[in-house]
UniProtKB/TrEMBL annotation:
This is Transcription factor interactor and regulator LisH family. GO terms for cellular component: cytoplasm; nucleus. Pfam families: CTLH, LisH. PROSITE patterns: CTLH (PS50897), LISH (PS50896). It comes from Helianthus annuus. GO terms for biological process: proteasome-mediated ubiquitin-dependent protein catabolic process. Residues 76-133 form the CTLH domain.
Length: 241
């Protein structure tokens, strides 16, 4: 992964100097990459950031022992993943209880998140054919929030519209019953918990990879150089001449 950092830096420098498209040999390119010094502890923090944010508890534990990275309470990862799994499984009530056990302020200070969790509860009731219970829940729990927020009201109306279609999956609101809706809500909860624990809500590594791709695309217009096309292996391919 140090290669990613090196490529990004070199791409920026070469793009700034280039006035016309030129060919950069592998030897020249690798020399420039080797001139960039990346601290091992910075790379370790980058890896740990990814493991913690994405919830890979066992991998984070092993990596912490092998790398000597600063102590992190991995119990918080387990608890956070339990919440995420509950939402993804449709057990929203259980997820809300777990969030409150972790930190009641998360939902108390985030009305949008709480509404989306309640909306997901309504979706699950409709999914399970509990029509009367769904209507009662919508009226008692969600309608008052919709009166206070126009955006919430529109989302509520769209959710209740699920009851109006016989073929829900092919209806204009069928996407609400798709697994992607659960994943969206789970991701929102996950981000809120991370923020409450003073962690970044998104891992840094994917952003760096996107930056690498962007930088290479910019440089392609000005130079032929050994570029990375396979991000999994980070193999340099010789420039086309």
């Amino acid at each position: 992964m140090s290669l990613f950092w090196s490529v990004i830096r070199q791409l920026t420098e070469i793009e700034a100097m280039a006035t016309s498209k030129k060919v950069i040999t592998r030897e020249e390119w690798e020399k420039k990459l080797n001139d960039v010094k990346i601290r091992k502890e910075d790379m370790n923090k980058l890896v740990m950031n990814f493991l913690v944010t994405e919830g890979y508890v066992d991998a984070a534990q092993k990596f912490r022992m092998e790398s000597g990275t600063e102590h992190i309470d991995l119990t918080t990862i387990t608890d956070r993943m339990a919440v995420k799994k509950a939402v993804q499984s449709g057990n929203v009530e259980d997820a809300i209880e777990k969030v409150n056990d972790l930190n009641p302020e998360i939902l108390d200070t985030n009305p949008q998140l709480f509404f989306h969790l309640q909306q997901q509860r309504l979706i699950e009731l409709i999914r399970n054919g509990k029509v009367e219970e769904a209507l009662e829940f919508a009226q008692e729990e969600l309608a008052p929030r919709g009166e206070e927020n126009q955006g919430f009201l529109e989302e509520l109306e769209r959710t209740v519209a699920l009851l109006a279609f016989e073929d829900v999956k092919n209806s204009p609101v069928g996407d609400l019953l798709d697994i992607s809706q659960r994943l969206k809500t789970a991701s929102e909860v996950n981000a809120a918990i991370l923020t409450s624990q003073n962690h970044e809500k998104d891992p840094k590594l994917p952003s760096l990879l996107r930056m690498l791709i962007w930088a290479q695309n910019q440089l392609d217009e000005k130079a032929a150089y050994p570029r990375i096309t396979d991000l999994f292996t980070a193999t340099l391919e010789d420039p086309a001449v």
